[in-house]
Specification:
Keywords: Chromophore, FAD, Flavoprotein. With 389 residues, the chain is of the alpha/beta class. It is 42% helix and 7% strand. The strands form 2 sheets. It has a 5-stranded parallel beta sheet, sandwiched between helices. The protein has a two-stranded antiparallel ribbon with strand order 1-4.
C-alpha cells in the first residue's frame, strides 16, 4: 500500500474492480497481504455502487449468493439497515458490553494516537492509517480490540478517531464495527492475541512478548476486569505525528460560499461526498451540477486532508460549482432552485436535518432487498433479505 493507491477516478475504481479474484479473496482475505478488494473508498463515496461491484465481478467469475465476498457486501448494507432503523442510537452502546460504560476512559491515550504503544501490531496499524488512509479489516479489528479491551477506552472515542482518518469512513460501518468488537453490538467481545497476528500479518507486525501475547482465556478475563489495563507507553519513544482533522476542504481546492443567483429557477443535481458517480440520465437537460461540503456537519465529523483531496478532486470532475457552507446557508441558497435532486444517503440526511425533506431524493442503489423490520443481528438480516434484482 502506498499513499497514492486510491486515485479518485471512476477509471481507477473500475480497474480495481477488474482485478478482484473471488477465489483468492475467499482463500486469503484474513491475511494483511491477502487478496482483498480495496474497493471500500469507492463504495463509501459512491464512485462505484454495490450493485455495480457485484455485477462487475459476477460477469467474470462464478459468484454464489453464499460466497464470502457477497457476505462482505452484505455487512455493508446490514450496517446501513441498522442506522436507518436505529438512527442516532448507533452512536451510543446498543446494549451493555462486558463492563459498564463508566469503566472505560473517555479519551484515546496519546501513545495510541502516536503509534508508540510498544505493541507492533498496533503501532504498524496506526502508521499505515496515517500514511494511506486505509487499513485491512483485520487490522481495524485488532486496533479496536486493543483500544477497548486492553486499554479500557470507550469504543466511541476510538471509533470517532478512526473514522476521521479513513478514506472509506462510513459512520454506520465504522461505528457499528467498533460496537461489534466492543461487545455492545454483539454477544461477546472480539479478542485477538500475538499468535493471531503472527498467523495473518507480516513479520514486522509480530508482537511476541507484548501485552497481547497471552491466551484467549486470559484476554477474556482482562476484558471483563475493570482494573486490568495494559500500561501506557512511557518515556521518550517517538511514534507517528497524527495528521490534523479538518472541518472543511483546504482553501486550495477552490470551494466558495453558495450563490443563490447561480441556481435560481434551475434544476440542481447535488454532487455530495457520498454520491460521486455519474448523474442520472433522466435529469432535465439543463440541470446544474453543484458539489457541496457541509461545514457544520464536518465540525462534528472532521476528515483528514487526504480524504478531503479524494472527495474534492472527484467533485471538481463532476460539478461546475463547488460550495462550502453550513447546512442552513446551503439550504437557503438552494431555496430558489426549481428542484434539487440527490442520491439518498444517511450522512447527507443527518447533515441537512429537517431541511432534507426539501430534496427530491433518488433511491440509493441497493444490492440486497430491503428489510422493513429491525434486525438484531447480521444473521437475522441475512435470512430475511436476498439479492435484489
Amino acid at each position: 500500500m502506498t499513499p497514492d493507491d486510491f486515485p479518485p477516478t471512476r477509471e481507477a475504481a473500475l480497474a480495481r474492480l477488474a482485478a478482484v479474484r473471488p477465489a483468492d479473496y475467499a482463500r486469503s482475505r484474513n491475511a494483511l497481504e491477502g487478496a482483498v478488494t480495496r474497493l471500500s473508498p469507492y463504495l463509501t463515496h459512491g464512485v462505484l455502487t454495490l450493485p455495480e461491484a457485484h455485477a462487475g465481478i459476477a460477469d467474470r467469475h462464478r459468484l454464489d449468493p453464499q460466497h464470502k465476498l457477497v457476505y462482505e457486501f452484505g455487512w455493508r448494507e446490514y450496517f446501513q439497515h441498522v442506522w436507518q432503523q436505529r438512527g442516532e442510537a448507533i452512536f451510543a452502546s446498543l446494549h451493555p458490553g462486558p463492563l459498564p460504560d463508566a469503566a472505560y476512559a473517555s479519551a484515546l491515550p496519546q501513545d495510541i494516537r502516536e503509534g508508540h504503544t510498544g505493541v507492533p501490531a498496533i503501532d504498524r496499524a496506526v502508521a499505515a492509517l496515517y500514511a494511506t488512509g486505509y487499513l485491512h479489516n483485520h487490522a481495524r479489528m485488532w486496533l479496536a480490540s486493543y483500544v477497548v479491551h486492553l486499554r479500557k477506552v470507550r469504543w466511541r472515542a476510538g471509533a470517532d478517531w478512526l473514522y476521521g482518518h479513513l478514506l472509506d469512513g462510513d459512520l454506520a460501518s465504522n461505528h457499528l464495527s467498533w460496537q461489534w468488537v466492543a461487545g455492545t453490538g454483539s454477544h461477546k467481545p472480539y479478542l485477538f492475541n500475538a499468535a493471531n497476528v503472527a498467523k495473518y500479518a507480516p513479520r514486522d507486525w509480530h508482537s511476541t512478548g507484548t501485552a497481547i501475547d497471552c491466551s484467549y482465556e486470559a484476554l477474556d478475563r482482562i476484558a471483563r476486569d475493570p482494573a486490568a489495563v495494559a500500561a501506557e507507553a512511557r518515556g521518550d519513544a517517538r511514534g507517528e505525528r497524527e495528521p490534523p482533522l479538518l472541518d472543511g476542504p483546504p482553501a486550495a481546492h477552490g470551494y466558495v460560499a453558495p450563490d443563490p443567483a447561480a441556481v435560481h429557477g434551475r434544476d440542481v443535481w447535488l454532487v455530495h461526498p457520498w454520491s460521486l458517480g455519474a448523474a442520472p440520465a433522466d435529469l432535465p437537460g439543463d440541470t446544474l451540477r453543484v458539489a457541496v461540503a457541509i461545514a457544520d456537519w464536518h465540525r462534528r465529523w472532521p476528515w483528514s486532508a487526504r480524504r478531503w483531496s479524494f472527495v474534492a478532486e472527484r467533485q471538481r470532475a463532476l460539478a461546475s460549482l463547488l460550495w462550502l457552507a453550513p447546512a442552513p446557508a446551503l439550504v437557503a441558497a438552494l431555496a430558489g432552485a426549481r428542484d434539487v435532486h440527490a442520491v439518498d444517503d444517511p450522512h447527507l440526511r443527518q447533515a441537512l436535518g429537517p431541511a432534507a425533506e426539501a430534496i427530491r431524493w433518488r433511491p440509493a442503489p441497493r444490492l440486497f432487498a430491503p428489510v422493513a423490520t429491525t434486525c438484531a443481528s447480521f444473521s437475522q438480516w441475512w435470512r430475511r433479505t436476498r439479492l435484489a434484482g
